[in-house]
Amino acid sequence: MPANSFANRCKISLVSHGTDLLSSSDARERNWLPLAVSTAIVLAVVVAAVLLLEHGKGHGKGAAAVTPISTPLDAYAPSLPFTGLSMSESSNLAGGKVTYLDGHVANQGGRIVTGVTVQVLFRDFAREVTQNETQSLKLIRMRKPYIDVEPVSAAPLKPGGERDFRLIFDTVSPDWDGAYPEVRVIHVETK
Question: 32 or 149, which is more confident?
Fold first, then answer.
């Protein structure tokens, strides 16, 4: 029997040892168009994601928004005086500072208040606005074991009602003069 056959009469063809196993140096020219198109698409998606995230920072739930300082006060604003303002700060788990503005609000009007939007203006030493934030007023729900807040809609303020509130600022401008910010009631929801 020949050396390249088995008992069942299968023949194994000889393996070529020639240079045709190596790629030739004159291989086809590579088509770079698909790679360039896919790279452009990936870059466009990344840029769009960054722009959306940056644009959405001031508009997400609980995030601060900017309202022009010339915005008029709500007509019901004189019925909601703020008293007993105090400020404090604490550090968060990320090592940053959180600033709190606490106070007391009373409903001296004749309607039930279900929502309050305030504009908070931090000023620098030249009395120029250095930070302008718009937030929904949050009422203090409980104080122990920690201070927990809720929206006004969760516990509406009845006529004659009074509650403590807290506004939370993740960042405060480094140019802030350290004085109490101006708090303006720019929108009130009532029923």
Answer: 149
